[in-house]
Amino acid sequence: MPKTAAPCIALLSTAISMDYLVKPFQRVVPDIDLRIGRSLEDLGNLDQIEAAVCWHPPQGALARLTNLRLMQSLAAGIEHITSDPSLPQAIPLCRIVDPGMASGMKAYVAWAVSHQQRFMPAYLKSRSAQQWVEQPIVSPAKHRVGIAGLGILGLDCAKMLSNIGYSVSGWSRSEKHGLPSAIKGFHGAAQLGAFLATCDTLICLLPLTNQTKGFLSGELFQQLPRGAHLINVGRGDHLIEKDLIPALDAGWLSVATLDTFSHEPLPPQHAFWADSRIVITPHIATRTDPEVIVRQTLHNLDLIKKNQVPTNQVDINLGY
Description:
This protein is an alpha/beta fold. Helix content is 26%, strand content 18%. It has helices spanning 22-28, 79-82, 101-117, 120-128, 152-164, 192-196, 218-221, 244-250, 290-305; strands at 8-13, 33-37, 51-55, 70-73, 93-94, 144-148, 167-172, 183-187, 201-204, 228-232, 253-258, 278-280.
């Protein structure tokens, strides 16, 4: 039997270096044809490319790949791809689903919530001043945490926080059935205000769609208990950035922990850097295992070649 030709796959990103995926791909398919680039000029013969693994690919690039059969995000989010108005609608677009991501997200969220709820910034300040100063001890049961977005990651975080002892509620666009009894569920626009009133800490883990872009706004912050803590581990565009510092100044929020931003890396001149009330981490809440990206990409391309539906394909019109 003739040997099957190794696939030709483009690793496309204008935001990060994709070199870290080369060795994982080569371990699985030693003779794979990988094209790495920030622009089409880096990719050689475009007609040979069958799949594109993307993280913020250049606008218009995917439409120029005439034999493209798979568009694969290297993470769960796909809005960095669907924001391209020239995106080829007929080509399958898939997200990565990595069970290991939940562990990383839960660890980050547990830290972000408890870091503020247990007054750790004050203890760090006392440590620097060599002062033994005790802060109030507040039981987790008396601190209400709300999670906007009860998908896989959101629900896992809700269960984890509930197990620690926090009072947890969750909100989603549509009703979620079968929630654990310890987690109070809210859904839809009609119940959003009631949900926000329960959030001493608000965690955003929503998918980014046209409906959720700008969800974290000044209008929303005013509906939270005064002095609430905002944690955004969703997407940068969930937050209307110009509304955040005024909300902190007005006391609607007391602190914000942000792991994701509309523009990454966050520009050095950005106002958030100078505000000590804003905790900044560089999009590290959780990461997809490179081996998972490789396995799912190759599996999806194989399914498509067999005229089968790839795994974790998204509806481009819905955005998830």
